[in-house]
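Reviewer has doubts. Consider these C-alpha cells.
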Amino acid sequence: MRIAPSPTGYLHIGTARTALFNWLFARHHGGKFVLRIEDTDLERSDKKYEKDIIEGLEWLGISWDEGPYRQSERLDTYEKYINKLLADGLAYYCFCTKEELDEQRQMMLAQGLAPKYNRKCAALSESEVKERLQSGTSSIIRFRIPETTVSFKDLIRGSITFDGTLIGDVAIAKDPRTPLYNFAVAVDDEEMRITHVIRGEDHIANTPKQIFLQKALGFRQPEYAHLPLILDPDRAKMSKRYSATAISEYRREGYLPEALVNFIALLGWHSKEDKEIMAAEELVKEFDLSRVQKAGAVFNIEKLGWLNAQYIKKLDAEELAKHLELAPTEDNLKIIELTRERMRKLTDFKTLAWFFFELPEYDAGLLIWKETSQKTILENLQKAKTALAALAGTEFAKSDLEKTLMPIAQDRGRGEVLWPLRVALSGQEASPGPFEIAEALGQKETLRRVELAIKKLG
C-alpha cells in the first residue's frame, strides 16, 4: 500500500482520506505502508508543502513503514525504463507543437470522434528524430497505447473495461530524465512492490494507461480500488470552505487528531454495526473495502464538530490541559472540568473559560433577575458576600458553597439570589453555575468579584 501525494499544495481531507484508507488496509492485512512524494513537477513542487504533508500525516497518527521516497531522487530509474520503451519501439519522440495538437483535437471533435493523438510523429525515422533533438526542437515522449481493450476488477466498483483505440498515445515524459505522472507511477508501484492501490475515483481514467505501461514493461499489475468523491454539504465538488481545507487548518481550529481520523474514516465507509465513534485500533480491526460505498461521500461539518466534542469529553482533565497548553494546576483542572461539556473544539475553551482568568466588563443591568428591583438584588449580593466571607478557606468546595448559599436562595428566591451571583462571578449571560465558578475561582477572587458587582449597583 502507498500514499503518493504531490507537494504542490497543503495536505487536505481528500489526500488524508486516501492515506488513511491505504494505512487501514495495510494494517488490517499485516502489510506495509509506503510514503512516496511525487515531486517531478519541479515548477509547482515546494518543500513547504512536503513538510506540511509529512507533519499532517504524523499528527493524524498515519505512520509509514517505508519512505518518504521522492521521485526527484529516482531519475536514473525512470531513465532506464524510458530508454527501454524507446529501444523496443513502444515509445517515440513527438515534436508536434501545441497549435498542431489543438488543431488535431478540433478536427476530431468536428468529426464526432474521441480526440486522441494521430501518431503524426510515430513514423519518423531514427535520423529525423536525432536531427530534431540535436537542433533543440521541443519534444515529448509518447507511449504507444495498444489498440485493444483492457479490463480490471475494481475492488469497490467491480469490472471496468476501457477501449485502447479511444485513448490514443499518451505522453509519458518530457525527456528520458523527466517522467510524467502515469509513467512514474507505473514504475514506482512495481519497484516498491505495491500490491494494492486505493485512490480517488478521479484516477479511474489513469488506470488503463498505467496497466498498458505495466504490460509493456513486464510489470505485475496491482489490484485497484477507487474511492467515491468527497462532496460538500450541497453535494457539490470539494471546496476550500469544507473538505478541501488543509488538515493544518483543522488542527489550528481545535480538532483532535483522533476525532478527525474517526470522521475521515466514515467518509464513504461504514462499520458492520454502523458505529459512529471508533478509535484507530477498532478501525484497523474492522476495515474492509466491501463496506466502501460507490456514491459520493458528503462532508458534514456538524458531524465533525459532534465527534470532536465526544473525544474531548473522553479525555481526562490532565490530557486536555496538554492539548490546551495549560499547566495542570488544580485551578486549571477545575476550569477544564467546568467547560469541557460545552466544548466542540479546543479553541472553544478560550471563549468559554476566559472569564475565569479575567472578569470581563459587563453592564450592571445584567445583574438584575427579571422584574426584581435593584435594591433587592443589591441586598441579596451583600448577604451572599457576608456568607461567603464567613467560610474558612478550606470550606470553598461546591458542596460547602451549596450548604451555605442555598438557604439564602430558598428564603429570598433562587433566581433573585443565584442569577446575580453567577453574573457577578462570570460577567456573562450564560456560564456554569455560581457554585462551580466560585469553587474554581477560590474565596479571595470570588469575594473580589462580588464586591465589584455591589459597587456597580451602588
